[in-house]
Amino acid sequence: MIHIRKIINHPHFIPWILFIVFTTIYFSSTVGGMNSLDGSQYSLTQALVEEHTFKIDSFMKWTYNVDYSLSNHHFYADRDPGLSFLAIPFYWLAKNIYIFANKPYGNINIDTDSIIQALTYITSAIICALGLLAFYQSSLYFVKSKKIAFFTAFIGGLGTLMWKYSSGFYREPVFTSLLFISFYFLFISEKYSFNDRKKILFLSGMIVAISIFVDYSKVFILPIYYLFLVLNKEIKRQLIIYFSAGLVIFILLIIFYNISAFNNIFANPHAYHAYLKWMRIPINIFQTPLISSLVTNLFSNSPIQRNILSFFWKNPDISYQMGAEWATIWTYKGIFIQSPILIFAILGWIEFVKKFTHKALLLLAIGIINLLINAKLTVFWAGNNYDTKYFLPTVLIFLLGLIFIANKLNKKRINIYQYLIFIIIFILSIISLYNGWYSTLTSFAPHVSGEHRFTFEQLQQPVFALTNIKTNLWLLFINTFPNIYNIHLLFLFYFPLCFIIYLLIFQRKFIISVFSKHKK
């Protein structure tokens, strides 16, 4: 007899629900390849699997002759290679099961390649779902409330740009997710014996290295981690060695890739850009005025002001390449406008710093430094995305403060002021969720650079007429979840594989006991 209550109360039940729900949402929201922004990463994955090489000479079509690097007379991806490497098993599996798949929905440019791309992009969906699981577990570590932890993870997954970019093939949400997985292992290590802590810190270090492999520009997190480890009295010095050992494998892989592709240990693929040659000059990368950029990236709800982009007006060729003029036309939402729930989350950091000083400062340092570095970026609006994609790590870190506000309200007696605060939090959460959904709905069409796959103008008018409601709801649904036609593959292939891995890692004793009983 199955005991439903026991299953629901199992400590791994909610994490599994989160993982399945967010993987399904992100996977269903993809259209496969869109343009050169994700195509460069995909071309490297193809090269690694098909030709066992770092060169993308045979797969240049996915770069649209824009986003690629040139070194030693060969073409390479202009993106950091980590995500492309992580996608190898998913691309291999996609090639073998695509005959069971359907084309993602779309009226234009959907083809067989779109199927394999959509199945490969589950890489991001799975990693980002695991990241939100780690976000939930980290929240639970701090406030001990499943409801609050679940609510905050739900907002983080759908009420930010995580939704839009986790359904694509981009390094920012993947880096953010790996960062939170490493945080979680780092924090929970304190609860274990000395020998177990060695393994957990090794794992945390390895995931930090993978996150840097995914995004070289985040190497600044390393000294912050080490500062935390050294200053934390609960972590013995010899344990730091195990954290460092975890870094080694993927740091060596970074070095190997850089030397093989660019003959330079410290290479950055952007420094070898063949089309955007201005990126080869380091001083060109950070040309935005810091203060005005911070105000824009935090609070803007209008097109970017022209005075912030003075570098581009002095360099019209670069302005044309990067679509700077469009940045002054499209509405640009700062992180507090895109996800207004952050307004309350920030207030929670006062409590966070008081109760968990070292851990809060570790997170805050990474969040603020990421904010400052990306605010200085010349193209801080993420190319033709025109949004705060680069600030995702900061957004998720800031959002953690919400658990302390919610926890404080949960413990107090309900009064009129609390009702008012609950109503405000509810409204801000709804706005955040709407913005997260709208960003996903209006993401790019497949294989067409810069064109939205849906706009509200496509709805039948009048929108709420009884004869049009059914059609309009279907249009909104299918453009939000264009890959819903392949959802069966999650349950046929991906989730069973994930469950087997889960059993092997977390339920070894149970498996051993089952087999030992069977032998008897």
Can you characterise this structure?
Strands 1-2 form a two-stranded antiparallel ribbon. The mean pLDDT is 92. The chain has helices at 4-9, 13-28, 36-51, 82-86, 88-97, 112-120, 122-143, 146-158, 162-166, 171-188, 194-214, 221-231, 237-262, 290-299, 310-314, 316-322, 324-327, 335-338, 342-347, 349-355, 357-376, 392-399, 402-411, 416-441, 466-480, 487-506, 508-519, and strands at 69-71, 74-76, 301-302, 332-333. Helix 5 packs across helix 6 (112-120), helix 7 (122-143) packs antiparallel against helix 8 and helix 26 packs across helix 27 (508-519). Helix content is 64%, strand content 2%. It starts with a helix and ends with a helix. The chain contains 27 helices and 4 strands. With 520 residues, the protein is mainly alpha-helical. It folds into 2 domains: 13-270 and 332-451, no CATH class; 488-519, no CATH class.
Provide the fold topology:
Elements: H1 4-9, H2 13-28, H3 36-51, E1 69-71, E2 74-76, H4 82-86, H5 88-97, H6 112-120, H7 122-143, H8 146-158, H9 162-166, H10 171-188, H11 194-214, H12 221-231, H13 237-262, H14 290-299, E3 301-302, H15 310-314, H16 316-322, H17 324-327, E4 332-333, H18 335-338, H19 342-347, H20 349-355, H21 357-376, H22 392-399, H23 402-411, H24 416-441, H25 466-480, H26 487-506, H27 508-519
Antiparallel strand pairs: 1-2, 3-4
Helix pairs in contact: 2-7, 5-6, 7-8, 7-10, 10-11, 11-13, 12-21, 14-21, 20-21, 21-22, 26-27
